[in-house]
Amino acid sequence: MPPKGWRKGQTAGPRQTLVLDNGAYTIKAGLVTTGPSSKPTYDDCHISPNCIARSTRDKRTYISSDLDECRDFGELAFRRPVEKGFIVNWESEKAIWEHEFMNEGKGGLRCDPKETNLLLTEKPNCPKELQKNCDEIVFEQFEFASYYRSVGATFNAWHPSSLLSLPQECLLIIDTSYSDTTILPIYFGQLLQTAVRRLTVGGKLLTNYLKELSSLRHYNMMEETYLLNEIKEAVSFVAPSSEQFAKDLERTWKGRVGDKRTLDPSIVVDYVLPDYEQSIHGYARPHDPEKYRMRRGLQPQQGPREDLLPLGNERFAVPELLFSPTDIGLQEAGIPEAVMQSLSVLPETLRVGLLSNIVVVGGNSLIEGFMERLESELRVLVPAEYAMSLRRGEDPIKHTWLGAARFASQPELLKQVLVSKAEYDENGSGWLGRKFAGEI
Amino acid sequence: MPLVEVIPNNATSTVAPRWTYVVDTGYDPSKVAFNPKDRKRVPARPGGPRGDTELSARQQTAIARRIAELSRDNDPKQVIAIPWKGAAAKTQNTRRILQYQRQIKHWLDDEEALLQQAPPPRAPAATGRAAALRRRSTLASIPPTPAEATTAEATPAPTAYAPQPNPELDSILSVEKSRPAPLNPAELEALLSAPPLLYGESHATLGAGGPPQRRFCDNCGYWGKIKCLKCGARICGLECKDAHEATRCLKWA
Ligand SMILES: [Zn+2]
Ligand SMILES: [Zn+2]
């Protein structure tokens, strides 16, 4: 048996790496063994909420995976360390990491940072000061043995799903996640920085928008972020085209005085809200005007009491923002046009390569109809003579994590990028920032 | 007298809410493809190129405020204390960082301000990556320059197929025409060594050639065919006008 700390003198560092895709909504994390026989899979990735939640009803504070125990999501307040995709509040992020990954914590993963490498993903265009804070916390507070930080999407070039040799030569990632949506052209695993494009619209904005609309039109739901997120995931769909969007808008309109319309129950649904006593989760069913009138006291109530939230145009007008941000006055292009803007600053050969390998990751890609709309709108914009291949990652939430895990499992790749704590102590965070930026 | 103005809804009106993605609006999506060479990248503001001139400054402020609200990650009024007794701060740096209660907008404002004062020297990433990567490339590429070939290690690039210009063939074979120009080593080098854009520069801008902005009823979300004269918001009819006046009317003023 080797003496304790025997690895310290070796340049190779520990064989265990914590691969951490630190999203604003969820943390995707797993411990990966570095070695020729290591083949991490989706099962090695653990997902936990990246938040601290406080309930005024049960007077409990939930840290990250503690939320599994929560049975009443009413008026649940959230504190999120990550804002716009970047780690901003280290007081809460530290608490969550300690809780989820460290030996004294309660979460699913256990590691001693001094015996572990850290591979941490970040969003593109992170302010340098925030990167510096992050690097200092990683080495000075957690004291990881060694560390690499890079834009998460680039690791998708090492994702094993493709038949292409790895890293994939040309890869265009569309990452539509909680914080925002980013377009990332990647060449042999390297981000083409000048062509990165971003839309403010992400899952968070969609949930907040649905919350605003439901509160205006039905109940005050401004404190019900958890519920509205759940409703959004249950009922949203992306209209196949803007023509169909217009048709659906007619089908969900109540009409006006003198021109009353009946709502189309094949598109309008009633969401039965949970009462957090009998039920923790709600569900949607086709709209029933009778039940709706009962709820509003216009007709006597029959059967058990139910609180209903009718959802009509909200179902498709909310996710429509991914394709038409101007609908709420946001002066940004939708995803298909943002892709074209990204490609427009690249040479034609790269455009052709990137268009033939587009992969969509992030939770919004799971919204019904999203991929079909994206494909058809992109096909119109992309010149006809270019071949285009667009697909959603097999598991769009864990796709980036698995790419990063496969990268971390290969000793020769990891060795090139890891910086040890000793190097950091010698050179400082300014040097580290330049090193990770590829300047030295 | 009702405080409404009926917006004409014909095909030529730029504010017609019924635009569709077909050419009858004069907007041809294929024409915008690859066109915008938006070198100068600025953060998006309400009332941009496709936004309307009809919006007052106050309306624009209201829209900006609403968007800020919709894209907010944390409620600054909400204080959630951390019950977890974790490790104490280990260095001066980490003590300071752990105490920050700033929000992302403060960091981004700092970055913007720094840029206003003096654009930071944008150090390009280390050069010499392109040659190494290009050697593995399957894309057509211009052979490396002699200077590159000497700096590049051992084996030269396996010369990928580079089409030779032949005007006669070009006119016959349309396939040949569509073959893109080979990758230029210098251009690739520049792309790979370019520093990241600042956050504010990374937003997808609104090109001038896009479809006109669609306008919706502020109350029910149907087309906003009528304009509220008090605040400028759109509504679909008199019923929604009443609801609008009872709820959000002055919010937009
Ligand atoms: Zn209306
Ligand atoms: Zn008004």
UniProtKB/TrEMBL annotation, chain A:
Compartments (UniProt record): Cytoplasm
Keyword Cytoplasm attributed: yes
Pfam families: Actin
Chief localisation class: cytoplasm
One cellular component (GO) term of this entry: cytoplasm
SUPFAM superfamilies per record: Actin-like ATPase domain
Entries under InterPro entries matching the protein: Actin, ATPase_NBD
Keyword Protein biosynthesis belongs to the record: no
Keywords on record: Cytoplasm
Entry-linked SMART domains: ACTIN (SM00268)
Family membership noted in the UniProt record: Belongs to the actin family. ARP6 subfamily.
Role description: Component of the SWR1 complex which mediates the ATP-dependent exchange of histone H2A for the H2A variant HZT1 leading to transcriptional regulation of selected genes by chromatin remodeling. Involved in chromosome stability.
PANTHER family named among the record's database cross-references: ACTIN (PTHR11937)
Assembly behavior: Component of the SWR1 chromatin remodeling complex.
Name of the protein: Actin-like protein ARP6
Organism: Westerdykella ornata
Automatic annotation (TrEMBL), chain B:
GO terms, molecular function: zinc ion binding
Organism domain of life: Eukaryota
InterPro entries (alphabetical): Vps71/ZNHIT1 (IPR039723), Znf_HIT (IPR007529)
Biased amino acid composition, Low complexity: 147-163
GO CC terms of this entry: nucleus
Keyword terms of this UniProt record: Metal-binding, Zinc, Zinc-finger
Position of the signal peptide: none
Zinc-finger recorded as keyword: yes
Spans annotated as Disordered: 32-55, 139-164
Domain (HIT-type): residue spans on this chain: 213-241
One GO BP: chromatin remodeling
Stored PANTHER family: ZINC FINGER HIT DOMAIN CONTAINING PROTEIN 1
Name the record gives this protein: HIT-type domain-containing protein
Record organism: Westerdykella ornata
